[in-house]
Amino acid sequence: MTEPPAEIITGAQSLVRALERVGVDTIFGIPGGAILPAYDPLFDSSIRHVLVRHEQGAGHAAEGYAMETGKVGVCMATSGPGATNLVTAIADAYLDSVPIVAITGQVASGVIGSDAFQEADIRGITMPITKHSFLVTDPADIPSAIAEAFHIASTGRPGPVLVDISKDALQGPTSFRWPHELALPGYRPTSRPHNKQIREAAKLIAEARKPVLYVGGGVIKANAAAELKVLAELTQIPVVTTLMARGAFPDSHELNLGMPGMHGTVAAVGALQRSDLLITLGARFDDRVTGNLESFAPNAKVVHADIDPAEISKNRTADVPIVGDAREVIADLVRALQKQAEEDALVGEYSAWRSFVQGLKSRFAPSYDKPAEGLAPQTVVERISALSGPDATYVAGVGQHQMWSAQFIDFERPRQWLNSGGAGTMGYAVPAAMGAKAGAPDRVVWAIDGDGCFQMTNQELATCALEGIPVKIAVINNSSLGMVRQWQTLFYEGRYSNTDLSTGPESIGARRIPDFVKLAEAYGCVGLRCESEDDLDDVIAKALSINDVPVVIDFVVERDAMVWPMVAAGTSNDDIKIARDLAPDWEEDDL
Ligand SMILES: Cc1ncc(C[n+]2csc(CCOP(=O)(O)OP(=O)(O)O)c2C)c(N)n1
Question: Quick one: average pLDDT of 417-432?
């Protein structure tokens, strides 16, 4: 018997078939010359294509989709400027380890390198900010490139993968052949931790007197929140959750000390500084967490577990390095600790330490002063959280509103919080919220954005309105680039060079350009405004009651509010301030 002749299809048809095969249900993108052949078969596919207004929006939407659903997010763009518009989002996904696949059209293979119309070497441009990339010039290679791209993006340490496909490869004839196995000989991420390292870690944990579970975003990526809870409750060790890990451990849990770092809680920062053992899980000793590295947690030994061996001992030398998937590491640690307790009667005793850090937690609970007049931005964030609950997803932009969101939203579940932590990308919130809502249509999705950030990507409101993606946008409008203004207040003698945005009302001398309510309406959204705490709850309730179109609320807030606590950049965590020129009183005698 001879095999029936293979069906001859185009490379573009093969691409769409491959994407269906890996289970893609949503793509965010914009067509153009080089990628156009792919858009023709996409028209007939079951895959939903969301036509964005800017490729950066497609990239962040893919990130939001990925963070919300745990699946790989997909964005698509044409060659040249289409592809380069994706760069910021790809860099963002790289720094925050978000699994996305970016598919770009490339000029025809025969003219690559000739400065052809809309040619950009996007593979070269993104090489340092992708986990891997492909340039496909033969249609026969499309299915395997897609299969490998999705595998690489989603396994090991997740990250962005680029698949750049030349126009002739999309147009040329081929037959669809799905690879039986992936040809990735050099790529074998270690997910099973080494037993000996786990035993070493368990021993250090039992011997420690002041341990801290230093939890990073890797715990969320590894879906390890349930295991973490078991470990924390078994050992009764206090937990800190980094900006990327908010929600990995419930805020309501008494062992949770909150967020460490530049704008972290006194309890979390103080606990790390005084600790004798950091049990580091999927975190990377980012400079925003450590402050001045030399003086970070000076007396602590370090257990460092990460799926990426390159992270271990990168910034801080690990006494016990563990390479592995956070979920497996934590589960193994639990077993090793139980065994150690049963067989050797070795159990850690941390009650004095716990009462010290609990004391810090109650004495320095996150708080703020309300202004004599006007709306406090922190109150807005608190009330949105209180009225929407932990089932909602919260997506932030970058700046003061991001930090207030990280501090004042009640985080109870993993994937409740999406933000741009590593890159700090203004413009992330609206498109990432769009991606999250497209991935989980039944969830309430809030973007909490700054008036500066919002102006970078708010054109995606058109996409949300037309595509039926009813996100809720809270613009925390302080009429300025608030976080930069805060630094100018603190470090540049109040010289506010180029931070006034004039989005506020006339009463503060601003010109309300643009008027966010009118802007929302122009985009087919509902626009609301709130200027006083008296109607704050009503406005939020109104936004929560509208579920068929996107809602934008212009929260006109007081502009001089600052984010506290703060560890000034480059200084030691020991110099944390709870307000201007005010250091906490540690009462170390308690320890
Ligand atoms: C793309 C980009 N450009 C510049 C910055 C530097 N930056 C960080 S925060 C910030 C101000 C953000 O202002 P806004 O969105 O109004 O938020 P606020 O701090 O007022 O809450 C700026 C300009 C950045 N992080 N990202």
Answer: 98
Strand 277-281 vs strand 239-241: parallel, antiparallel, or unpaired? Answer: unpaired
Q: Given the CA of residue 455, which atom of ligand 1 is nearest to it?
A: 15
Q: State the pLDDT at residue 585.
A: 87
Distance 426 CA to ligand 1 centre (A): 6
Predicted confidence at residue 453, as pLDDT, reads 98
Taking CA atoms, 215 is separated from 159, 249, 405, in Å, by: 19, 9, 19
State how far the Cα of 344 lies from the Cα of 326, in Å rounded to an integer: 26
- Closest ligand 1 atom to 424 CA: 25
CB 510 within 8 A of CB 503: yes
Ligand 1 neighbour 484 (Cβ under 6 A): yes
Catalytic residue among 118, 171, 358, 459: 118
At residue 377, the pLDDT reads: 98
Cα separation, 500 vs 515, whole angstroms: 15
Query: To 5 degrees, how large is the angle CA 517–CA 445–CA 361?
Result: 105
Instruction: List, in sequence order, every residue forming a beta bridge with 530; answer none if it has no partner.
Output: 555
**Burial track 81-97 (b if 16+ CB lie within 10 A, e otherwise):** ebbbbbbbbbbbbbbbb
566 is catalytic: no
pLDDT digits (tens, 9 = 90+) for 489-518: 999 999 999 999 999 999 999 999 999 999
Q: What is the mean pLDDT of the chain?
A: 97
Query: Which pLDDT does position 1 carry in this prediction?
Result: 56
Contact call for residues 567 and 291 (beta carbons, < 8 A) = yes
- For the chain, percent of residues with pLDDT exceeding 70: 99
Amino acid (1-letter code) at residue 325:
D
Task: Tell me whether residue 454 is one of the annotated catalytic residues.
Answer: no
Give the DSSP letter of residue 7. Answer: P
Q: What confidence tens digit (pLDDT) does each residue in 18-48 have?
A: 999 999 999 999 999 999 999 999 999 999 9
Residue whose Cα lies nearest atom 20 of ligand 1: it is 482
Mean pLDDT along residues 56-66 = 99
Backbone phi, psi, residue 365, to 5°:
-65, 145
**Of 244, 426, 456, 483, which is the active-site residue?**
483
The band of 590, judged by pLDDT with boundaries at 50, 70 and 90, is low
The continuous run of DSSP H or E covering 422 comes out as none
The Cα 502–Cα 514 span in angstroms is 8
Q: Which amino acid is at 52?
A: V
Dihedral Cα 497, 498, 500, 501, nearest 10 deg? 180
Question: Is residue 102 within 8 Å of residue 90, measured between CB atoms?
Answer: yes
User: Half-sphere exposure of residue 166, counting CA atoms within 13 Å on the CB side?
Assistant: 19
Give the Cα separation of 63 and 76 in Å (integer). 13
Q: What is the mean pLDDT of residues 339-365?
A: 95
Our separate counts of H helices and E strands in the chain read 23, 19
Residue 573 CA to residue 566 CA, distance in Å, equals 9
Q: What are the C-alpha distances in Å from 194 to residues 214, 215, 307, 344?
A: 20, 20, 12, 21
Closest residue to atom 17 of ligand 1, CA basis: 450
Does the beta carbon of 504 lie inside 6 Å of ligand 1? no
What is the C-alpha to C-alpha distance for residues 107 and 122, in angstroms, rounded to an integer?
Answer: 11
